Amino acid sequence: VLLRVAEGVSLPFECLVVVDDDDDPTIKSVAELASGDPRFMAVVNRSGVGPAAAIKAGIRESRAPVVVVTMADGSDDPRSIDDLVRLVERGVVIAAASRYMAGGQQVGAPMVKSLLSRMAGLSLYWLARVGTHDATNSFKAYDRAFLDSVGVDSTHGFEMGLELVAKARRARMPIAEIPTIWLERTIGTSRFRLWEWVPRYLRWYFLAFTRSRIKGGSRGES
């Protein structure tokens, strides 16, 4: 996966691979790659367990003005990263890789998970006008100033991507998207827990339909 990032991204970047403990064998693999390519480094998450804590740890440790969140299981296409970053550099606060817009595709996902994700994404696009057909996909690029202004409240699963879309929509900040082809992982076990995390997704889903200035934000409107 990391070699695909190195080959697929042409813009200057740093790639932080977040793990949950010092004994994770991923650290050794990243160190071996980093010995020849210093753009890669491992980060040990010491602020909680779960995907949300890992993503927040990566955001804290990163230094770039644009932050891209992507999974390390090979589901996302790293060749999309350049286009996502360029959208943020042009002025949007979130650039989403979309499975459900024209040109996008989702391959191999469990039927119930895929159906719920598609329904959420399309209803948010058409009814809440959030600017992306795929608000629940974690593969997104974010403006650092936006992240700093709104913060991240999610503490458990992958609902963080939907949270930030909802916050941007409430503050009337611009969101854009590009199509992506997402492939279900074929190695390892997914950490996605559908029925456990649905209530957390619903919180942010309904928030996206409201309008308000976000406390502390500098670009929102009432």
From TrEMBL:
MF-aspect GO terms: dolichyl-phosphate beta-D-mannosyltransferase activity
Keyword Glycosyltransferase: yes
Keyword annotations from UniProtKB, A to Z: Glycosyltransferase, Transferase
Alphabetical list of InterPro entries matching this protein: DPM1-like (IPR039528), Glyco_trans_2-like (IPR001173), Nucleotide-diphossugar_trans (IPR029044)
Residue intervals of the Glycosyltransferase 2-like domain: 11-149
Entry-linked Pfam families: Glycos_transf_2 (PF00535)
Signal sequence range: none
Keyword Chloroplast: no
Family per similarity comment: Belongs to the glycosyltransferase 2 family.
Name this polypeptide is given: Glycosyltransferase 2-like domain-containing protein
Organism the protein comes from: marine metagenome
